[in-house]
Design brief:
The chain has about 200 residues and is an all-alpha fold. It is built from nine helices and no strands.
Length: about 200
């Protein structure tokens, strides 16, 4: 029936993104080029250029897809933990974030590269801004902060936790990785506690 299947062009585009993710996972950022992507996807290189003007555009689209999936994953996890203490919300959200890093092929390699190259860095900044907006609304409600301040807190929280999670997932030893993920949770919890608790006034 019409509308029940994805259009052929969209399927081909998704297949190219999937192939790129696999290559990132196997070869890293420097091992990915349009010829390799075409070979991995089983198509002519002209097909790649039909959907994406260059490698950077393709990687930008992949980063956008990762961002949408990651936000949906973390948002669903946090929503399921609503009503629980703030520390529990942070624990659930950070662990969902770390699990996504480990589960999604190529994500860690692309996210690290996104912070080093111009066009991808811009896409990464847009991704971060979206999380700042979305989680800023959550922090505004949960912490009772003005919207502008909550967005600032959300950006700092996401980048701080992301930095520690990046270190965690790079560790091949599972116990060491789990230990560092716990540290990422503590970083997030400690930061939000500091934001939530007013600083005592000094006595003169």
């Amino acid at each position: 029936m019409p509308g029940r299947t994805q259009p052929r062009g969209a399927r081909r585009r998704d297949a190219l993104l999937d192939a790129t993710a696999r290559l990132l996972d196997a070869r890293g950022y420097d091992g990915v080029n349009t010829n390799a992507i075409a070979a991995e996807a089983g198509v002519a290189v002209g097909t790649v250029y039909h959907h994406f003007p260059d490698k950077q555009a393709l990687l930008g689209a992949l980063l956008e897809r990762y961002g949408a999936r990651l936000f949906a994953t973390v948002a669903a996890t946090v929503a399921a933990a609503q009503g629980r203490p703030l520390d529990d919300l942070v624990d659930a959200g950070v662990r969902a974030f770390a699990a996504f890093y480990l589960r999604e092929p190529g994500y860690a390699q692309l996210w690290l590269s996104a912070q080093l190259t111009g066009p991808l860095r811009e896409a990464g900044e847009q991704w971060g801004a979206r999380f700042g907006d979305e989680f800023g609304a959550l922090f505004s409600e949960t912490l009772g902060l003005p919207k502008a301040r909550a967005r600032e807190v959300a950006l700092a929280f996401v980048h701080a936790v992301s930095a520690v999670v990046t270190v965690a997932v790079a560790r091949p030893d599972k116990r060491a990785r789990a230990s560092m993920i716990r540290e990422a949770v503590r970083v997030g919890q400690g930061y939000l506690r500091a934001v939530h608790s007013p600083r005592p006034r000094s006595r003169r």
